[in-house]
Design brief:
This is Lipoprotein. With 98 residues, this protein is mainly beta. Helix content is 0%, strand content 36%. The radius of gyration is 14 Å and the shape is globular.
């Protein structure tokens, strides 16, 4: 599904070390989206990666007005520093407009 011009993909790298609440390590926004699949790279500071922590990605896709359109339904496990390609699917965001 193509989104109208101005849509933004936001991706977060999240750390979960089981001693603290999950926290973002890196975050990037990508505009000028031409349709899925969306290629991206998420830069992070290697010093922010802690031994023993688990890492995952979360992503959102918003329209030009900032309304949430799509989300990752669950965190996507990743290994920072790995050359492996990470793929994930997004689902339409639900809203409470009843």
């Amino acid at each position: 599904m193509l989104l109208p011009p101005g849509a933004t993909l936001e991706v977060q790298l999240i750390a979960d070390d089981s001693t603290h609440a999950p926290s973002p390590v890196a975050h990037s926004s990508f505009g000028d989206l031409h349709g899925p699949p969306y290629d991206f790279a998420l830069p992070y500071a290697p010093a922010d990666i802690k031994q023993g922590a688990h890492y995952s990605l979360r992503a959102t896709l918003r329209d030009a007005q900032g309304h949430l359109e799509f989300v990752t339904p669950k965190s996507v496990p990743v290994t920072p520093g790995s050359n492996a390609i990470v793929e994930f699917r997004m689902v339409r965001a639900t809203t409470d407009q009843d």
